[in-house]
Sequence to fold (111 residues):
Amino acid sequence: MLTQTVDVPVDPERASTAFTAYLNGEGAVGAHLHDSHGRWCGTVSDWDPAKSVSFTWHPGRDPQRAGHVTVTFTPTTGGTRLALTSTGETGDTGDDWQDMLDLYAEHVQRG
Fold:
């Protein structure tokens, strides 16, 4: 299990909506998530708006070998803290997830 965090200066509702949009998906159970090239990489398994989203993750691999990712959105004084926890074979390292969260945070700050 691996956990990475990032803080963003928006409320949890905006942070959660922006996160699923950043993964080229929707915040709905069963929605597909895509990478920047439009390839299907995961499926939303749980969605609690402004609180958490969970999804399978299998970039470039058989979906049967997918890992699982949960992202929680916790209010902070200056916005929201995202905590991303990945388990199983997600195919990404901690550095990959932290890089993705940092890029997401820049995207949110630009609006």
Notes: The two ends are 31 Å apart (CA to CA).
